[in-house]
């Protein structure tokens, strides 16, 4: 299991990335390996579940009385947001 934490910065500063308790920099071996594992994880998610996750990511506003599937998609969307952020900011 991998632990990923993005520190909440002062407004305008980049977020510090901590993987398994270790602060990492751009293109470090640990970042590269983590992104590879996240990509494998994403590829294994069924297409219908991906659609729900993507719907959550693009939605503006709250979900009222979400279904069990939407709640799961909301939870998984945090992983996808982190994956996207790390890809954008930590992989050159």
Span between N and C termini?
25 Å
Sheet with the most strands?
A: 3 strands, antiparallel
Using DSSP, what is the number of strands?
3
User: Could you give the order of strands across the largest sheet?
Assistant: 1-2-3
Q: How helix-rich are the residues, as a percent range?
A: 55-70%
Structure notes:
The chain is mainly alpha-helical. It has one domain. It has three helices and three strands. The two termini are 25 Å apart.
Topology readout:
Blueprint: E1 4-6, E2 17-19, E3 22-24, H1 29-44, H2 47-58, H3 68-90
Antiparallel strand pairs: 1-2, 2-3
Helix pairs in contact: 1-3, 2-3
Features:
mainly alpha; 3-stranded antiparallel β-sheet; 3 strands; globular
Brief account:
The chain is built from three helices and three strands, in the order βββααα. With 92 residues, the chain is mostly helical.
């Amino acid at each position: 299991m991998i632990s990923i934490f993005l520190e909440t910065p002062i407004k305008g500063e980049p977020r510090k990335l901590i993987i398994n308790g270790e602060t990492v920099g751009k293109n470090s071996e640990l970042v590269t390996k983590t992104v590879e594992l996240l990509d494998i994880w994403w590829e294994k998610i069924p297409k219908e579940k991906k659609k729900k996750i993507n719907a959550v990511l693009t939605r503006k506003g709250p979900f009222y009385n979400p279904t069990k599937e939407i709640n799961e998609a909301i939870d998984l969307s945090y992983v996808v947001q982190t994956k996207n952020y790390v890809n954008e900011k930590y992989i050159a």
